[in-house]
Amino acid sequence: MTFVMWNNSISVNVRKIDEQHQKLISLLNQIYDAMSIGQGKIILDNILKELVDYTEYHFSTEESYMTQFDYPEYTVHKSEHDFFKNKISDYMRTRTIKMDLISELLDFLKNWLINHIKKSDKKYSAFFNEHGLV
Description:
Four Helix Bundle (Hemerythrin (Met), subunit A); mainly alpha
């Protein structure tokens, strides 16, 4: 069973960013799949590290486009990214993660990512398209 499914409702109409969002969703699904078969604790550290690293890469992509095109809501958007990074860092410091915390983490990741894409990222969609990003 898929934990998070990619669909057009979360597309921002910028291919590179959509592909990055799909990768983030794939990482969430890997954590969920591992939990489903009782392997969550075994692979959690590796997938969380990959998630953190990839999130940094993804956020830097978005933020570089925002600064390049002088996106008017850059500061607000970046603060949302910073909140997410801090929250994940807090989880990463908790090395003795119990399965209930993994579930809580997954719920947070899913809700934050989908809400962030649908509410914040969608705001830049037309702006980026107008500046030639498709």
